[in-house]
Write a structure and sequence with these properties.
167 residues, mainly alpha, 3-stranded mixed sheet, 6 helices, 50% helix, globular
Length: 167
């Protein structure tokens, strides 16, 4: 069964995919921090705390490694392309809203909609996603749950797509 036939990307997901495509980021190997920085003309430095300076660059905490680095980089990248303002001077609710948005939308940047056709939904999907996109299997599972819930919410009622079909 072709699961993506029943998938309806969100507006945020489409916006991020279109933005990445407009910069020539078309395959998983393009999703490196170096390539993103180059394509978006941004800098990254290490500091005491994470910070995004809209349109200029990203500050990441010192000592991050592997997927922790990738996740934090893409989290701050989402802030860079989606949010304005200095969170130090925002009311608590606005700051929390921006953080929640970035935490959710990082899925769309690390595993973009326009690359989902590369995923084998018939095999060990979480491992497949993790291998293709360089994420942790836990993060891949989170994205897969989002995909599954979207498909289950939009599937025609005559189809029998069980939740276990995605595991």
């Amino acid at each position: 069964m072709e699961y993506l036939k029943y998938y309806h990307p969100t507006e945020s997901e489409l916006r991020i995919s279109k933005l990445l495509l407009s910069k020539g980021i078309v395959e998983p190997s393009d999703l490196t921090s170096e390539n993103i920085l180059n394509k978006f003309n941004l800098f990254v430095i290490e500091g005491d705390f994470p910070l995004s300076v809209h349109g200029l660059g990203i500050i990441l905490p010192r000592g991050l490694k592997n997927f922790d680095y990738r996740y934090q980089f893409f989290h701050e990248f989402i802030h860079n392309i989606s949010h304005f303002g200095d969170q130090r001077y925002m009311d608590g609710n606005t700051r929390l809203k921006q953080e929640a948005q970035a935490n959710f939308m990082v899925m769309y940047a690390l595993i973009p909609y326009h690359m989902l056709h590369l995923v084998d939904f018939e095999g060990n999907t979480n491992k497949n996603i993790s291998d293709i996109f360089g994420t942790s299997t836990e993060f891949a599972q989170k994205r897969m749950e989002q995909i599954k819930n979207n498909i289950l919410a939009h599937k025609p009622t005559y189809l029998d797509i069980s939740a276990t079909a995605f595991i």
